[in-house]
Amino acid sequence: MSLLMLSSLCGCHPRSPGSIRSMAAAGHVSNHTARKVSTIAAEVAGYADVAKQIIDLAVFGAAQNRSHSRLADFTDTIGNRVSGSHNLEMAIKYMYNAMAQDGLDVHLEPVKIPHWVRGKESAEMIAPRVKSLAILGLGSSVGTPPEGIEAEVLVVQSFEELKNRASEAIARIVVFNQPFVSYGETVAYRAYGASEAAKVGAVATLIRSITPFSINSPHTGLQDYQDGVKRIPSACITVEDAELMWRMAQRGQRIVVRLSMGAKTLPDADSFNTVAEITGWQHPEQVVLLSGHLDSWDVGQGAMDDGGGAMISWEALSLIKDLGLRPRRTLRTVLWTAEEQNGVGAQQYYNRHKVNMSNFDLVMESDLGTFAPVALQFTGSDAARKVMAEVVKLLAPINTTKLEAHGEGTDISPWLQAGVPGASLHVADSRYFWFHHSEGDTMSVQDPRDMNLCSALWAVVAYVVADLQDMLPR
């Protein structure tokens, strides 16, 4: 999950102004709409048996635990998959072959992606006592000089405090010990901390990891240098070490840290978005898109972020294929590359395909974990929302009939902003940021039954929307 997830998107699209109609005509339109809603509700309800078949296959049948097993095979074989790396190349080849062997139509679409390399890194507090600091350099950060940086530390808890103590920051390593409020709010320190500290003369930044829970585990992620501001090295440290240095600073103790980072940015790399399809029988040019991202950070296994989302987006097509189903419209699974670099792979996909925007019926993204599903989140017109409210009723057998506002996702955001209906998965994600972008993001986080339920939800929603008589109204 990348920085672009910070902003949620509104599902309200302004209606184009129409001519003034008479009260009688308006009444006719209202009655027609009411009948239309009634007709759609009946049409969707007709899919109850098919929805139950999909759910039974995913949760109780031959496909039970398959998405979890596929994820384990994939992440155990490939490992983590940072943008531009050989591992990401191997991951794309692996998924291309696996989905082709599954009987899906698979192709690759080339894109250019950033290639940042962590290199060797270390940090050590050398005063007031010697202590090794667990760190993870932040994506796109520059490295230190070869000899490293040794400097006194200024500990602050907010951008405001840094501004008020600007004169103390010159030639210091600034440690941000900001409290965790929410990911959306607190991640600003990871994103912009380096540039804000550089503006007041700091030589490096160490930022408290963006997590509500820690067992001395640093969390990485992308940071964003501001144009025209000196680029200084930036890394995340653990919650425990940030709080330790804060307490020391409060006692008036002089803190000195030695930091070494071999990070560097190489020329952009060649990569691919991986696309698998079941072609629609009546309107093959119209598309319901399901997605997750294939890249991860270079720690852990990337099982949760976002191996699970990628696997359920494959599994949904497998379930539909296994049942011999073929919808009116094309079902297209896209496994994005370089999502963690602010969705650059998905943006290039959008740029290539936006000419056919009117044929994109629904875009779906899973990138907040595949824990137990709670609801479907949806962004679209009021009329489309009425249709989707009927669709989620089909999920009664797995008790996920709730439709919430604000479908979201870094990779589908360009489509949502352009007015295409979008959906995302709301799961029981209270533990998501415990493991996010850390060495803890491994298969041990994943539960097979949760993934069965997510796969069932994903497949039912995608199939039914793709098979309805009409596309979702814009």
What does this protein look like?
With 474 residues, the protein is α/β, with parallel strands linked by helices. It is 36% helix and 23% strand. It has helices at 23-45, 48-59, 66-78, 86-101, 159-164, 183-199, 239-250, 303-322, 344-353, 382-393, 413-417, 432-435, 448-467, and strands spanning 105-117, 121-127, 131-133, 135-137, 149-156, 173-176, 204-208, 234-237, 256-261, 264-278, 283-293, 329-336, 360-365, 373-379, 403-405, 422-427. An eight-stranded mixed beta sheet has the order 1-10-12-11-13-16-14-15, sandwiched between helices. The protein has an eight-stranded mixed beta sheet with strand order 3-2-9-5-6-7-8-4, sandwiched between helices. Helix 3 (66-78) crosses helix 8 (303-322) and helix 8 crosses helix 13 (448-467). It is elongated and about 70 Å long. The protein starts with 22 loop residues before the first helix and ends in a 7-residue tail after the last helix. Residues 6-32 have low confidence and may be disordered.
